[in-house]
Amino acid sequence: MSFFKKLKESIAAKTEAVTNVFKEGLSKTRTAFVEKVEELITRRKKIDEEFYEELEEILIGADVGVNTVMTLIDDLRAEVKKRKIEQAADLQPILSEKLIGLLKGDDHAELRMAPEGQITVILFVGVNGVGKTTTIGKLAHKFKSEGKKVLMAAGDTFRAGAIEQLEVWGQRVGVDVIKQSSGSDPAAVMFDAVQAAKQRKVDVLLCDTAGRLQNKTNLMEELNKIFRVIQRELPEAPHEVLLVLDATTGQNALSQAKLFGEKSAVTGLVLTKLDGTAKGGIVIAIRNEMNLSVKLVGLGEKMGDLQQFDSEQFVHALFAGLIGKEEEKSGTTSE
Amino acid sequence: MAAFESLSSRLQNVFSKLKGKGKVSEADVNDAMREVRLALLEADVNFKVVKDFIAKVKERAIGLDVSKSFTPGMVIIDIVNKELTELMGGTQAKLAKANKPPTVIMMVGLQGAGKTTTSGKLAKLLQKGNHKPLLVACDIYRPAAIKQLQVLGEQIKAPVFALGDQTSPVEIAKQGLQHARENGNDYVIIDTAGRLHIDETLMEELKQIHGNVKPDEVLLVVDSMTGQDAVNVAQSFHEQLELTGVVLTKLDGDTRGGAALSVKAVTGRPIKFAAMGEKIDSLEPFHPERMASRILGMGDMLSLIEKAQSNIDAEKAAEMERKMRTAEFTFDDFLEQMEQVRKLGPLDQIMDMLPGMGKMKGAMKDMKVDEKQIGRVEAIVRSMTKEEKAKPELLNHSRRKRVAAGSGTTIVEVNRLIKQFDDMRKMMKQFSGMMGPKGPKGLKGGKKGLKGMLGKNMRFPF
Prior knowledge:
The complex is a heterodimer. Chain A has helices at 3-12, 16-25, 27-43, 49-61, 66-83, 88-103, 132-145, 162-173, 186-200, 217-233, 252-264, 282-290, 311-334, and strands at 120-125, 150-153, 176-178, 204-207, 240-246, 268-272, 294-298, 306-308. Chain A is an alpha/beta fold. In chain A, helix 12 links the parallel strand 6 (268-272) and strand 7 (294-298). In chain A, helix 3 (27-43) packs across helix 13 (311-334) and helix 4 packs antiparallel against helix 5 (66-83). Chain A is elongated, with a radius of gyration of 22 Å. In chain B, 49% of the residues are buried. Chain B has helices at 7-16, 26-42, 47-61, 72-87, 115-128, 145-156, 169-183, 200-213, 230-241, 259-267, 288-295, 301-311, 314-325, 331-343, 347-353, 357-364, 371-382, 386-390, 397-407, 411-435, 443-455; strands at residues 103-109, 133-137, 160-161, 187-191, 217-223, 245-249, 271-275, 283-285.
């Protein structure tokens, strides 16, 4: 069975609704990206230097890291040589497969949860303005609607209005917020929150932190302290440390993943604002270079617009055009 | 980032092939341009912008006479840098001023770019210039956005006009302007909600605010970490709102900030300010030339190159380099070398200018480059006899004791200096390699050398 058929079938098994959210959220991304590749293949019939260069530009234009793109192009060159491909059209399936290979990895998309009856702690970290607080609000809503008891910790004691922002989310979704006054020690807030979570026997504790640039040593040490306090109070925790990334971010996301990883043992990524025209291609580079995969994606402004990341869905949504063609072709050959 | 090799060392590889050539051929330029292209792409400059840029630089570089200049690599870097600086807007732009106050400034941009924080910072900057800004809270969508602006206003004691989150932003903006007129505020800063440039409803709202308050400035706030998409965002906002300028935020991070170039290229609007930190007074005028070297990943190498070119005697440098290569480097040369390096300016400034040093700043905080220390080192060296300077091996224990007494230092210090002298040879080799006729070769090694010395918890030896 062809790769795409398998993919299609596994998707069919999933609910229509989820597929639609992905499709809609990624529609801009998809049209921009896939159409460009298709256009390139039909316009440039021959595979030559200029073809490679344009392909390189399309991929780089999606913020796929420069190193990753260079490797991919080299792989393609080798493949073309080996199989003696001359027509651009013949390259298409190889290209699609390679691209999908880059996006798809071993799936760890599921959030790691504590066993029944224990508290799951999820810590959110990231630079300023990526959408940490919003993501927490959305995730609280998701857990709440699954019937879980949720608590949120207002660990951003620095930015003006951050605590209030989380409180508004708390009211919206009906979840309590543990807080101290603005300017207090965020590690102390975390301590309080973990104690409260134990007392109230909650299922999930979501911890917000202040946005910080990864090259600020002191702030990164503060984050490390937050991490240590949580770990000390609950040895298994935090069960997940999610680095929130803005999909519009370029190559700097690599540095973010690396440095946040060092100070807070990041376990996965949340890719936000994917409903814009940005492609978030840098997650491919991060997956390749740091083996961190995306766990959640933010696809819109609504409460329900946070989805568990599903690489198959992502690939399908991103490459729907390419996959459609592939199916047609395999359909005619089998007849 | 470690993954980013600086452009200068990359170009050096390309040009090492063409030593002694008088002219740069087209093929050489093509090779060099490939490296420039990669450097720009890695800095997140949009690929279309890169393409146009490369075409321009190429035109200027081909057939260039390089015989008199330092190295072909330097010449190319110089062209690239000048072109980049020019593209990003030669001189700093000022804020517009309305003929009849108040001057209305509208802040727009994507979510999380930093509009609210920047609004506060801009108000602070205006206050410093003895203005009376009014902040208007038009972000009714993000929870607690109004509160955020109010807290910022309180911090700097600037009035904030808000009507809660139930009134339409258009109305708030209108009334805010009226409020400013009545209360004698000469600047009005309108903070709008972050929005996607493809969100038609919200973009329409901005257009309506624009139509009602007729702003003198429409500033697009852009996160300096933005990748390739920066062009789409800027273009879209510009088409719909006619921007007058750009503010680049989060520049205190370690991003190369190629978005600056992309945004400038598609909108043609000047980058007026750069936000450089968490503090409320960290909004600075934008410096195109600094941004250019940052995008190229070269620290302030370019100023250093310029300084070196004007201050260092090329012949002496060549002789020095030869000596060091052949390990003839003595304490005499050391003194002279120190003299040469000192001509470049205060040492900590030089350190700042070296690529890669920015990253080391954290480690260097405790290591202040002490000019007094330099004097002490000089004294030690000058207390040596001619023979000792020429043959450091001669310095046995009793000689060292004499030198310590003669220079008013301790034997520990003398020992340390001599021990470091060997390390110095290695490091100075890098410095001189950079300044000498062979261009910035081996800078990376220099960094390593320095790091090694710092790692051993040593003071900077001169």
